[in-house]
Structure to design on (64 residues):
């Protein structure tokens, strides 16, 4: 694991929540939407459509 995947895995191990931002296409331009704080509960490796291994993370919203 490298980059963002490693950060998400470390967050799951330490129990620290992550801040999630989402990029959306709106009225002919990209916008960044703030989704809030999420807890990484688990991750697993699966095979993607093209046959490559992908890492999937389960994120649950933190209680407000």
């Amino acid at each position: 694991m490298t980059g963002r995947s490693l950060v998400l895995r470390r967050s799951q191990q330490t129990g620290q929540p992550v801040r999630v931002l989402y990029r959306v296409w709106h009225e002919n331009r990209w916008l960044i939407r703030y989704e809030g704080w999420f807890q990484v509960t688990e991750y697993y490796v699966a095979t993607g459509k093209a046959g490559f291994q992908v890492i999937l993370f389960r994120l649950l919203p933190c209680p407000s």
